[in-house]
Amino acid sequence: KNLGRNRFHYFTPCMQKEAQARRRLISDLRLALADRQFRVQYQPIVDLSTGAISKAEALIRWQHPTRGMVSPAEFIPIAEETGLIVEIGDWVFREVAWQLSRWRERYPQLVVSLNTSPVQYRNSGIDHHGWFRYLHDMGVPASAISVEITEGLLLDTSTAITNQILRFREAGAGVALDDFGTGYSSMSYLSKLDIDYLKIDRSFILDLAPESESVALYEAMIVMAHKLGIKVIAEGVETEEQCRILKAVGCDYAQGYLFSRPVLPEEFEALLRDGPARYRDSVAPASMLN
Ligand code: C2E
Ligand code: MG
Ligand code: MG
Ligand code: MG
């Protein structure tokens, strides 16, 4: 009991500070949209059968006026708790649609995937009609986007949510299950909801080395996904060896620092033009996306 009391006294000032910092972050976050402090970076997703960039993932960045870059891992959860994620999600979508309207002229096959939060679906925060009209006005087909959802959303089997995900597919957009393997869902959920891509979480790649058990695990996930007609994207690929193993076990796409970090649009255009750095001087797949 004594210990408990001490602990209580010890933690209080700390918790107060934390709560204060949180309130600060919330009020800063409210200003960030109007003050244009957000940017979207794009990270290439490489088709392992050709070596070409065929897709990109859009990742939000917050350039805070005094704190510098704040990681989405820090502010997305707060945006979710406060509901601000709905507005932020709309902004990211419009930003991506606008970029696509410029890029698709030259790269008509390019697909950009964007992260969506369960909160957006639960509060009917995604205005599908508005989104599709926006794409139409931009001259971008719905098939140029893919929405990434997280496993937690699949556990929620309410038809309201399933229907919202279905609306993307009906419009021709892709649906990707992000961070696969980190949550509680199993392969059986995959067969319940039609999805196009499975993104295997970075944690699985960390010990991907020849002879390691994770190779068998990766292979099993890929085989099952393929049986369900789902393509597999490996997240967090950092080494040539990982890339080689992924190809050997039949993985379809890879994304990671080996190819490029997430970059601003101008730099992504250069990647589309010249190919990811690692290919530039080697076995260059000369034409991207054609
Ligand atoms: P995620 O969707 O799983 O995105 C992949 C994360 O892995 C990104 O972190 C990316 O920069 C990082 N990454 C990519 N390749 C590598 C690699 O080779 N090694 C390592 N160590 N990391 C790699 P980031 O950009 O910090 O984003 C973190 C998370 O924040 C995302 O995870 C996603 O869940 C969320 N997020 C980012 N942008 C948005 C957004 O616009 N909306 C929503 N709702 N969530 C977002
Ligand atoms: Mg993602
Ligand atoms: Mg991911
Ligand atoms: Mg991940």
From TrEMBL:
<feature type="domain" description="EAL">
    <location>
        <begin position="22"/>
        <end position="276"/>
    </location>
</feature>
<protein>
    <recommendedName>
        <fullName>Diguanylate cyclase</fullName>
    </recommendedName>
</protein>
